[in-house]
Amino acid sequence: MKKSIYCSIVVCLALAFLAVPLATSALAGEPALKMVGNGTIKSALLVDGSKIPLSGRTSIYLEATEKELAEGILSIKGLNLAFFQVPQAALTYDKIADDRTGALGFALDPGKVPNTCVTI
Questions:
Q1: What are phi and psi of 26, to 5 degrees?
Q2: 23 with 39, same domain?
Q3: Rounded to an integer, what distance in angstroms lies between the CA atom of residue 53 and that of residue 39?
Q4: Cα–Cα distance measured from residue 91 to residue 18, given in angstroms and rounded to the nearest whole number
Q5: Which residue range forms the structural domain that includes residue 90?
């Protein structure tokens, strides 16, 4: 019983500390939500009808003001994809005999893509 009361107090204090910066940032015109996500990703590269499995990492940075959150809109401020150990012969469309591999990556530059957002 005492443990659950202690946990409740800790949760309430944590929420109180989080609420103050969110309210302050919303008043200052700053985004009310800033979120970063990272994870693994699997995909495939199709070359001459052959499917080459790829795996790598992705990261995303999202922001939203209180108004955007109410409308279900999140702005994408950064998006990166990186695949590792990609067969270079498949990328160059060259019949290389060896098994050289490398990285293949993509990044979204929000400064060059205005109004990049998703609706939730």
A1: -65, -35
A2: no
A3: 17
A4: 47
A5: 31-119
Beta-carbon contacts of 38 under 8 Å, excluding residues fewer than 6 positions away, are 57, 58, 59
Instruction: Count structural domains, the chain.
Output: 2
Output the average pLDDT for the chain: 74
CB 88 within 8 A of CB 100: yes
Average pLDDT over residues 4-32: 51
pLDDT recorded at residue 113: 64
Residues 17 and 42 in one domain: no
Evaluate if pTM is beyond 0.70: no
Most confident region among 44-48, 75-79, 81-85 by mean pLDDT? 81-85
**CA–CA dist 106, 49 (Å, integer):** 23
